[in-house]
Amino acid sequence: MSLNYPVVQIAYFVNDSVVKAQKMAAQHGAGPFFLIEKIELAWGVHRGKEQKFLHTSAFGQWGNVMLELVQQDLEGPSPFRDMYAPGEEGIHHMA
Length: 95
Fold this sequence. Notes:
Blueprint: E1 9-13, H1 17-28, E2 33-40, E3 45-46, E4 49-50, E5 54-62, E6 65-72, H2 79-83, E7 90-94
Parallel strand pairs: 1-6
Antiparallel strand pairs: 1-7, 2-5, 3-4, 5-6
InterPro entries: Glyas_Bleomycin-R_OHBP_Dase
Protein name: VOC domain-containing protein
């Protein structure tokens, strides 16, 4: 991985997009956040199997960095669950 370029986007996997957006605004001055609820992917394949994915995301800025706060609304296998068990949160990816 090369860090020769600045990070411009961070995606966090969170339990509640609204609560986390409010917390990041209050504690770090991020936002405003724009919420899109119940985003359903038209199709998806995870680890070779067709998989539904329903999520809510809040999008906002923190200085020059775009933040995405992803909440998985339909429990099941996903790239997020590969990293985090139910109840856990954390960074999923940066760009």
